[in-house]
Amino acid sequence: MTESPLSMLLYIVKRLLASVPIILFVAVFVFMLSHMAPGDPASLIAGENATPEQIAKIRDRLHLNEPLLVQFWIWFSDLLRLDLGASIFSDKPVTELIAARLEPTLMLAAVTIVLTICLAVPAGVLAAWKVNSVSDRSIMILSVLGFSVPAFLIGYANMYIFSIKLGWFPVQGYKPLADGLLGTLRSVALPSLTITLVFWALVARITRAAMIEILQEGYTRTARAKGLSEAKVLFVHALKNAGVPVATVVGVGIAILISGVVVTESVFNIPGIGRLVVDAITQRDFPVVQGTMIFFSAMLIVVNLLVDLSYGLFDPRVRY
After folding, report:
1. Is pTM beyond 0.85 here?
2. Is residue 271 one of the residues assigned to a domain?
3. Residue 163 covered by a domain
4. Tens digits of residue pLDDT in 217-229
5. Alpha-carbon distance 210 to 239, whole Å?
6. 128-178, pLDDT tens digit by residue?
C-alpha cells in the first residue's frame, strides 16, 4: 500500500507545528546570549576603547534601554519576518552575510556527506560480515580514533601530509563554483576529509550494529539459500533493511558536521558560515552570532524532517 500525498502533507504539517516549541526555546536561548555575560552588553560589544557616545549608540540600536521583554518582542517580531538584524561592524543585514557565505559551507557539507556514506557504510557492512575478525577489529579501532582525535588536529595532520608533503591539494582557501567545479572540489577536499574522519566513525559503528542484527534474520538466510551472491545479500537485502537506523544517525551526525564546520573552516581558512561565526564571536558581533545560530537550528529541523520522510524509502511498512 502506497502513501497518499495528502497523508504525507499532513505529516509534514504536524512535524512543522511540533517544531514551533523548539524554535521558541532556541529563540529565547539565542536572545539571552547577549545578556548572559556579566556587565553591560553594549560595552562588551563596543570594546574597551569605545567612547560613551559609541556605547550609547549601540544601546539605542539594540534597544538595550528598553525592558528585557520589550527587547525580546522587538527582536522576535523581526525574526518572524525573517529579519535577523544587521551586523554592528559591517552594517550589512545578517541574512545577506549568511547568503554570501552559504556556498562554501554547503559544498563542504555535501562533499563530507558523500565521502562519509561512500566510506563508512561499506566499512560497517564489512565489519558486520566479518564480525570479530581482524577486519572488524581494525575498523572499530579506526572508528574509536575518529571519535577521540580532535577535528583541528586531524585537519593539521591532513594539511601536513597531503598539502605540504605531497602537494596534492591547496593548503588553505576556497575556489568558488563560478571558477570551475574541479577547483572547488580540490579546495574542499582536505577540510571535507577532516570532518569525514570524525563523522565516519559514528556512521560505521551504527551500520555495523544494524547489519549484525539483520544478517541473523530468517529472510537473509533464505536469500543465501536461494543461491544469491554474498554481495547481493549484503548490499540489496540486508543493507536496505538497515537503512532506517543508518539514515537516523546520518541526520544526528549533521549536528557533529555543523560543529566540525566551525573548527575546520577556521583551520583551512574557508570563508563559510562557520568562519563567519568565529569572526562574529571574536568581534562580539551579537546580531551575527544570534542570526547564524537561528540559521543552524532551522537547518537541523529541516534535515531531521527529511530524514523522517526518507524512512518510507527503506521500510515500506512506515506510514505517515
Report:
1. no
2. yes
3. yes
4. 776 777 777 777 7
5. 9
6. 778 778 887 888 888 777 777 777 777 778 788 888 888 788 877 788 888
CATH number at residue 184: 1.10.3720.10
Q: How many domains does the structure of the chain reveal?
A: 1
Which range marks the domain in which residue 128 is found?
94-214+245-314
Residue 55 contacts residue 67 (beta carbons within 8 Å): no
**Which grid coordinates belong to 282?**
571574536
Instruction: Kindly report the three-state secondary structure assignment for every residue of the chain.
Output: CCCCHHHHHHHHHHHHHHCHHHHHHHHHHHHHHHHHCCCCHHHHHHCCCCCHHHHHHHHHHCCCCCCHHHHHHHHHHHHHCCCCCECCCCCCEHHHHHHHHHHHHHHHHHHHHHHHHHHHHHHHHHHHHCCCCHHHHHHHHHHHHHHHCCHHHHHHHHHHHHHHHCCCCCCCCCCCHHHCHHHHHHHHHHHHHHHHHHHHHHHHHHHHHHHHHHCCCHHHHHHHHCCCCHHHHHHHHHHHHCHHHHHHHHHHHHHHHHHHHHHHHHHCCCCCHHHHHHHHHHHCCHHHHHHHHHHHHHHHHHHHHHHHHHHHHHCCCCCC
Q: Does some domain include residue 14?
A: no
What is the tens place of the pLDDT at every residue in 30-59? 777 766 666 666 666 666 667 777 777 777
Asked whether residue 125 is assigned to any structural domain, the reply reads yes
Give the pLDDT of residue 1: 47
